[in-house]
Amino acid sequence: MKYAQTGVDYDVLDAFKRACQKAAVPTALSLAARGAAEPAAIRGESAYLVDTGDAYLAHVEEGLGTKNLVADAVLEKTGRSLYRNIGIDLVATIVNDLATCGALPLSVAMHAAAGSAEWFRDARRCADLAEGFAEGCRLAGAAWGGGETAVLSGVVDPSSAVLAGSAVGRIQPKFLRVAGDVRDGDAIVLLASRGVQTNGLSLCRAIAARLPEEYATPLDDGRTYGEALLDPSVIYAGFVEACQEAVVPLRYLVHITGHGWRKMMRIEEPFVYRIEKPPVEGALFRFLRERGPVDLKEAFATFNMGAGFAAYVRPTDVDRCLRAGGAAGYEAWVAGSVRKEGTRKAVEIVPAGIVFDAQSLRVR
Amino acid sequence: MKYAQTGVDYDVLDAFKRACQKAAVPTALSLAARGAAEPAAIRGESAYLVDTGDAYLAHVEEGLGTKNLVADAVLEKTGRSLYRNIGIDLVATIVNDLATCGALPLSVAMHAAAGSAEWFRDARRCADLAEGFAEGCRLAGAAWGGGETAVLSGVVDPSSAVLAGSAVGRIQPKFLRVAGDVRDGDAIVLLASRGVQTNGLSLCRAIAARLPEEYATPLDDGRTYGEALLDPSVIYAGFVEACQEAVVPLRYLVHITGHGWRKMMRIEEPFVYRIEKPPVEGALFRFLRERGPVDLKEAFATFNMGAGFAAYVRPTDVDRCLRAGGAAGYEAWVAGSVRKEGTRKAVEIVPAGIVFDAQSLRVR
User: Fold this and answer.
1) What's the pLDDT score for residue B364?
2) What is the pLDDT of residues B200-222, one digit of tens each?
3) Measured between alpha carbons, how far is A4 from B219 in angstroms, rounded to an integer?
4) Which terminus of chain B faces fewer neighbouring Cβ atoms within 10 Å, N or C?
5) How many beta-carbon pairs below 8 A join chains A and B?
6) Contacts of B164 in chain A (CB under 8 A)
7) Residue A282 in contact with residue A347, Cβ under 8 Å?
């Protein structure tokens, strides 16, 4: 199976995104009257920044996608609400994007738009979602700064909800901004993920639909597919904070979500990202590959495959980076290096014999 | 007809909101480690604030509700896309909330989550939405700082989209914060709205469904019902900015949205808000009352009725407030005054003989 088979025509979305980007660019001129400015080269990055003179403010708006449909299916079948994890996932998908620019979150807001008031009648699910979101904020070191709750009948499916939100963060002092100053020979540090986190869920759902036991299907480690899919995402803001405190300059950070490992070549300048040590494949990714079946290259192009965040650092900073990350509770390792090979841009996963070229990642 | 008949059980939503608020409160403790703090009495206000020492950062997450369903119906019937106005509405609903605390927006993000990629295939609608959102940002003096575009099949209706977003703003210097320092005798300045803006749309849609010509039904000013409903909202950030520049202290600001005029008693301390000069009723509100039919009190409890924003100011500041607002292009007038009547809390619309007591506004 391929992600494209799950039915989303990205060309159409890209046309809309381009229209938005085109319309958005001139609006930055307004900032001058507010004593602020848009920093260079910020459009297309994972977070928007505003230069307020003494600091950068960071802003991210994000959605959870369709992961709550998995939680709903598991809840219906087993009576077990894993919505606490969904709450953590929702914070993770927002603040991990924010952290890629070096910003630490201050306020995170939740948006829950259900298709009917009935959706909110499940008190267990509601409490779990709220507690999970609060736990996510705690893990991110941010305040839960309000949000929006709405019923949108005629827009959202009556049995479902759109879960989304936003975060405000700050980079201070300004030199902590991670702007993409990558150089030949930089080390690629990967950070372990916990399961699929928040991407590739459409494909995961399509696979579940074809399994006789659906989400109750056991993995070879004895857990069920549904339970494993719903492991809560890792929140990487604490890694970024730990590196800042340890004065480890971060040259670039990648939140490995949509487009999977192809995201590692997100920066515009051409480099080759050579991975010698990918993560050991866990039971969930093995299951997805075997039961999809999903080709290994397609799997790396879609899922995080065990690494949810990447940091590019100077070789001389690697030890301190790993120590700082480890002390903050993150499993991190040097997985490879960045190479300058003229104008060539690619991600190479050496042990798997996989190469993604520049054309495979069209969207930033 | 009554708003409650449109099918949203707010008691269930309120239970969820309370669970969220309860879980959210302790998360503010995280801010200390970031050199920031949550200001007192901010929970329950329209915008969340973070005190960063030299300034307040403001954060709002909001949604458009179901107004785009009206635009879709008009588009389908007449071929005319009024999505430019929807884009302006979306910015308005976000930044008007932000402005109530005295914050001026810096970055506004759009979230468009459609039920199918097909939704984005209408290039006219997409371009209009993008242009309108950019125009809204321009009117708000903010940059369009990115956002999120998603297809959520199985969550959102395939023919529809959830339109939402967020804003980051700032209050600097900090004394410009509007915190609710209301006093007996303060003047109530109302600002004209443009149509229903972004609230009461469920009721408007229910009324359309019972009209033989639906949105094509003419109002007595010759325009159609659909066209009038889709007039773009007024963005009030410029009014707040003009008052700040003219050094007019704003004691409290109310964005008149859900709960209509009952919102005027949003502040916790009991006051009586006595309105002597409500707006002259326009063709759209007359139509809604007559064709609903919607009782006058219910109309004031649901719609903005011609006034989308209220400012409470010292009587001695009224002239300068009106002059500043007028120079910035806002239609504003002194509509009444705030009275201290012991522990009584009410909104009185004197010429209409309407009184809303404290019990009529349970949700903040």
Assistant:
1) 45
2) 999 999 999 999 999 999 999 99
3) 48
4) C
5) 291
6) 111, 113, 148, 164
7) no
- Chain B contact set for A65 (CB, 8 A): 150, 152
Would you call A157 and B160 a contact, using CB atoms and an 8 Å cutoff?
A: no
Residues of chain A found within 8 Å of residue B55, distances taken between Cβ atoms: 52
A contact test, residue of B93, B155, B162 with most A CBs within 10 A: B155
Q: What is the least distance, in Å, from the CA of B216 to any CA of chain A?
A: 20
What is the rounded distance in angstroms from the CA atom of residue B275 to the CA atom of residue B279?
A: 10
CA-based nearest distance A62→chain B, Å:
6
Nearest to B107 among A50, A54, A170 (CB): A50
Whole-angstrom distance, CA of residue B224 vs CA of residue B70: 12
What is the residue-wise DSSP string for B180-226? ----TT-EEEEEE-STTTTSSHHHHHHHHHTSTTGGGPBPTTSSBHH
Q: Say yes or no for a CB contact (<8 Å) between B34 and A164.
A: no
State yes or no: pLDDT of A256 exceeds 70. yes
Q: Tokens at residue B188, please?
A: 């109530």
User: CA of A51: how far to CAs of A42, A174, B254, B301, in Å?
Assistant: 11, 9, 29, 42
Which of A66, A109, A161 is the closest to B48 by Cβ?
A109
Strand positions, DSSP E, chain B: 48-51, 56-63, 104-114, 143-151, 161-171, 187-192, 252-255, 272-275, 307-313, 332-339, 346-349, 354-357
Instruction: Looking at the complex, report in whole angstroms how far the Cα of residue A198 sits from the nearest Cα belonging to chain B.
Output: 13
Distance from C-alpha of B312 to C-alpha of B252, rounded to nearest angstrom: 5
Summarised one tens digit per residue, pLDDT across range A221-241 is 999 999 999 999 999 999 999
Chain A residues with CB under 8 Å of B30 CB are 137-138, 140-143
Q: Which two tokens stand for residue B245?
A: 């520049």
Taking only the tens place, the pLDDT of each residue in B98-134 is 999 999 999 999 999 999 999 999 999 999 999 999 9
pLDDT of residue B56: 98
Helix (H) or strand (E) holding A318: helix A318-327
CA angle at B170 for the pair B169 and B174, rounded to the nearest 5°: 155
Q: How many residues does chain B have?
A: 364
Confidence of residue A361 (pLDDT cuts 50, 70, 90): confident
Measured between beta carbons, the chain A residues lying within 8 angstroms of B39 are none
Dump pLDDT digits (tens) for B54-107: 999 999 999 999 999 999 999 999 999 999 999 999 999 999 999 999 999 999
Task: Report how far residue A168's alpha carbon sits from residue A150's, in angstroms, rounded to the nearest whole number.
Answer: 22
Which pLDDT score, from 0 to 100, does residue B9 have? 72
Domains in chain B (CATH in brackets) are 3-176 (3.30.1330.10), 187-360 (3.90.650.10)
Whole-number Cα distances in Å, A100 to A45, A257, A339, A353, B219: 9, 12, 21, 28, 52
Interstrand relation of B56-63 and B48-51 (parallel, antiparallel or unpaired)? antiparallel
C-alpha distances out from residue B357 to A225, B272, B352, Å: 54, 9, 15
C-alpha pair distances (Å), A193 with each of A95, A287, A291, A332, A350? 15, 16, 21, 10, 20
d(C-alpha B88, C-alpha B235), whole Å? 8
**DSSP letter, residue B269:** S
According to DSSP, the β-strands at A104-114 and A143-151 are parallel
What pLDDT is recorded for position A11?
81
